[in-house]
Design a protein that fits this description.
This protein is α/β, with parallel strands linked by helices. The chain has one domain: Glycerol-3-phosphate (1)-acyltransferase, CATH 3.40.1130. About 40% of the residues lie in helices and about 15% in strands. It is built from 9 helices and 7 strands, in the order H-H-E-E-H-E-H-H-E-H-E-H-E-H-E-H. A 7-stranded mixed sheet has the order 1-7-6-2-5-3-4, with helices on both faces. The protein is globular and about 45 Å long. It starts with 9 loop residues before the first helix and ends with a helix.
Length: about 240
Amino acid sequence: MNVLDNPKYSHLLKRQPFYHRIGKTLLYNWAKFIFSWYTPLSVFGRENIPNDSFIFCSNHNAHLDVIALSLSANKNFNNVGMLAAKDYWFDNAFRRNIMKPVMNLIPLGRKSHLGKDITFEQTLELSNSFMNVDKRCIIIFPEGTRGQPDVLKRFRKGPARLSIGTGKPILPAIIIGSGKSWPKGKFIFKPGKIHVYILEPIDPNSFTIGYKNNEKDLFKTAEAMTKELEEKIKSKLRELT
C-alpha cells in the first residue's frame, strides 16, 4: 500500500474533521491566553517568516517550546505538524488515536526498529503532502530531546535531510525562558517570561548546487546545512546570554 493511501495518516493529507479543527482552535486560543499573562511571550524577527511552508528548528528545553513556536509564527495548531517516532506514537492505539490528530504527528522510523517502521522516503512523502495544504509548517528540534537551559546538545541531520528532500527552507529560532518555566523532570510549569528570536531562513537550494541524489551527496549536503543551522543558533544564543 502506498503510504499516502494508509488511513493511519489521513489526518495529515486533508482537512481534518470539523470537531478536530474546532478542538485545536480552542486549544490554540487557550494557549494564547496562557502565553499572554502566565508565561508572557515576546517574539522578535517575525519579518523572517517565509510566506510559504517551512521547517521550524530551535533549541529545545521544555514541552512549552512547540506552543511557543506555533504562537510565534501565528500558526494555528491545525497548521503545525511534528515528526514523531512511529514505534512509540503510532503503534500504540491510545497514543495513535488521542495524540496523533491533536499534534498532527508525522511518523519517523528509528534504526532500533528497522524493518518494522516507516522508511525516511515515506516520511518525506507524508511531510510534503502535509505542508502542501494551507502553507502548513513542521516543527523539528535538531537536538532530538530536551536539554538544559542555554546549553545546546549536538545537532542531528534530520531537519536538513527533510529540508533537502522537500525543498522547504529551515527557519531557525532561539527560545529563551521556557526551560526555567518548565524544567525537565517537573510535572507542571511556573510563571515566567519567554522570548523567541526568529532568524533568517536557510534555503536548501543554496546547498544543492551540483547535488546528485545519492547517499554520499545527501550526507555531505545535510552535514553542511546542519553545521550552518547549529552555528546560527549557537551564535545568537551566545549573543543573548
